[in-house]
Amino acid sequence: MATGDITWFNEARTLDYFAGWASTDDIKIAVLDNTTAPTAATATPALGDFTEVGTAGSYVAGGTSVGDWGTVWSQAGGTGTMDSATNPTWAQNASNDTDAHWGLAYNATQAGNPAMFFVELGGPVNMTTGPLTVTWNASGMATLTQA
Q1: What is the pLDDT of residue 1?
Q2: Does the structure show a pLDDT above 70 at 70?
Q3: How confident is the model over 125-131, as a mean pLDDT?
Q4: SS3 category, 75
Q5: Per-domain residue ranges for the chain?
Q6: Residues 56/97, Cβ–Cβ less than 8 Å
Q7: What is the mean pLDDT of residues 85-104?
Q8: How far apart are CA 47 and CA 9, in angstroms?
Q9: What's the sign of the alpha-carbon dihedral 90, 93, 97, 98?
């Protein structure tokens, strides 16, 4: 995988996965270390399956919100599109973690914090030597088409 690649969890590749999500649900990006590597095949993926980087410095437990579900998700004619105007950023700080590997997109409102996808950060990224920003593609985070 290359830096910036997004990998959807197999379980989250259907529009049915999102059926019970409310438009007000908070979608966040958490930063993970390399304790447990996410894979597309991770069964019932959730934030608790992985280890976040330390919460010292500029990183707050749970990560950064990229918007509510009603803002980041739209669906029409069997095609879902996910996008956000928020590129999550964590400022450089001497107390930050030094081994950021993945960004994890998950629903912080739903029970269990179900995850959708992860972003390869090219880790280990040392957040003490510079800021960490996840910049989404100009055409959006993702498009899912129902087969």
Answers
A1: 60
A2: yes
A3: 94
A4: strand
A5: 6-145
A6: yes
A7: 95
A8: 12
A9: positive
Mean pLDDT along residues 35-50: 95
CA distance 61 to 118: 17
| Token pair in block for residue 131 | 């800021």
Query: Are the beta carbons of 128 and 13 closer than 8 angstroms?
Result: no
- Per-residue pLDDT, averaged over 75-83, amounts to 84
Supply the DSSP symbol for 140.
-
* Three-state DSSP class for residue 118: strand
Specify whether the CB–CB gap between 136 and 145 falls below 8 A: no
Q: What is the mean pLDDT of residues 35-53?
A: 95
Distance CA 49, CA 42 (A): 9
Which amino acid type is present at position 17? Y
Spatial CB neighbours of 5, under 8 Å, sequence gap ≥ 6: 119, 120
pLDDT > 70: what percent of the chain?
A: 97
Consecutive H or E run containing 71: helix 69-72
Six token digits for residue 86: 């928020």
